[in-house]
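In keeping with the milestone schedule agreed at the kick-off meeting, the structural modelling team has produced records for the first pair of proteins. Each record is given below as a sequence line and a structure-token line. The laboratory manager (R.T.) confirmed that both were archived under the project's standard naming scheme.
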Amino acid sequence: MKSRRARIQEFHRSTIVIVAIALLAAAVAESETALYSSSRKLAEVSDIDKAYLLPGEVVQQRLRHKCRGIGQFDQLRGEWVRHPDHSYNGMTDPAKCPSFVRDYDCRADYIDQNYHVLQQKEFRKVFQPYACELHSMNTTYFSECLQGQRIIIIGDSTMRQVFQSLACLLTDHVTDGYLVDWQDAKPNQTAVPFKDEYFVRGTRSPILKQNVGMFRLKNGVQVHFQSFGIFNLTLWDDVMTKFMPLSKNDTIFVEFGAWYPRFSASEMHAPWARYKKDVLELLDMRLRAYSANVLWRGYGPTHFGGATGTFTGMNWELEALPAQETCEPAQYGEYYYDTEVIKYLTKCGEFCAHIHILPVFHLSLPMHNSHHGSFGRGIEESAIDCRHYCANVVDTWNQVLYNKLCYQPTGKGKLLKLQTTGRY
């Protein structure tokens, strides 16, 4: 007869399968009915979801060329391979990063030897797309490519990681900068005082204002950053006051999603319904009308267990299982955050040609061992962090950004207008 623990584990596995199937069915069905009414349009929406889950076509090594002209919706499917240099340990050295960069360091000196071995294994990997070969990061050219541009990064704490990674990658070209908690920001650093309150849609829950940052390059390029986990249109407008007027020389780099779980034990479907409304409002009422280029960063999939990486609990009546001690692989990942944006942009057409997806979802999906939680963050508090990635993954996001902005037929720093399929 099976033990109670064995029965619970069996229930756990069965629940994961059921949740995964329900997620896939619900995501497609909800998206179809929400955006389109005709059967033809329904089929198109369904195809977007299905296409996002299909494996990429593998191109023979001898035919692979340098990536160039990554299009509006292009995805970078590929694999992580070992770097030929045995001493390779990632693109950045945390000891050489600007002083204001203070992200969790997966390369810290560990008491647990297993973490050290895992770190060496994970940071030895480099991402290799199937269709083309990414240009290696050349920070001097990156700095030149951004000449005359202003980068405005807005989003949740995963975008803070993007900001810090950029500063580390460009450290030889950074003249000055800062990253502070919003409550410590000076009046000239943000247009929004910390004491001002903004609320989550449909609630009286105040939105947490997180960080404010900026760094400047030797050639005058400025990279700005402000983070708040949940979108609010009034808060967005107040934050953007500092950056007005916008021009074609501005690039807004944005993403929200970490604070919008697809299913929530306390709120069930409410956060996901809120996400769809918030993102539609941001895209439809602001981003499509801006003269600036817009990059929507692809979603960074979580790895909390289950087919989509979101399984974090089970029936409240059952005795609690041991806390999760490692980040687990996910078969599908939370693809629906990206496809929700793509469906809107597809419908919007040429009016949204200046809004592109930065394709980082597929490259992040297999990297469950490169989360902060994979190196112990949150385990002691039974709140393992399988959302934030280590520098090896976030630096690769910015390598894709470098390829996206600096290797376009339209010129340095310019996005491809009206191009929905890239040339690679």
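The second protein of the pair:
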Amino acid sequence: MAVNARQSAPPPTFLGAGDKTRKKVGSLCSSCSPSFGSEDQAPEFVRGKLLSELSTWGIGGAARLFVEVRNREQLVSSIRHCREHNLKFLALGKGSNCLFDDRGFDGCVILSRINDMHENGCGRYRVGSGYPFNLLGIHTSKQGFGGLEFASGIPGTVGGAVFMNAGADGQETIEVLEAVEFVDTNGQTRELLKKQGELACSYRKSPFQGMPDLGAILFATFQLQPCPLSRDRQRDYLARRKQTQPVNERSAGCVFRNPGKGCQSAGALIEAVGLKGLRIGGAKVSELHANFLINTGGAKASDVLSLISVIKDRVRAESGIQLEQEVRYIPY
């Protein structure tokens, strides 16, 4: 999942080909010497990293710069470096809910590998943004805590799940989310607390999506409750997902948000207008679940965007419903 794309200056608008030579960040700009602490802690920037390698869709051109961060210090330093040198940046998790442009991204992609987990044994988990969300769902349910059983079928990271307020099977991330630590575009660490009303979320929306100075999500704290059936529920949810969704295909999960109460699901609407199996280039509407667009091999972002446009037009023409994208398109 992507968190947001930020333009450091002017003000911002969270995610091979080319020269892949690895260089320390200090060598990227001859006019600067950013402080990253000791040499061992300095993150390495890579030129020309293919974004198709970072996306569950397997689509996307090369990033101008790419860096992996494994702790708070590396994340803060990378964001500050981008801001100081007028580089737009994209904080990225697993790339499971985004579509990269065929040309790539003319900025710096910061990939979170912050996967620390701290737990108190009483259902409270503080988890790094780069921790796999599906593994968190499995881990917590194995320990007998309920609330994240649905997460075991979502192929993203904790940061992406928080950003999108991911949900399934009647559960949502916000229901068990207590606090979120994040880094702003100035490199300052801040925190939002649920108990203070700062984490108001709705269906697939969170306050981070409209936050102009969000740099990247750092940690999320969840409070779960004991549930003797949590492991069974987690297994049931995952088994049902495998039966009804193309989990072995290259996709980005559900492409469209469900319209809401009183309406059919987005997948049902797409199926009702006869678009299952429709193909444009290498992109195809899944025949198993119509709200999934799959890369059958060699698909381009332009193929997916064309398919999305056709689906929106057909559903609107025949049902009067305007579908809204859940997947985020990341422009060049």
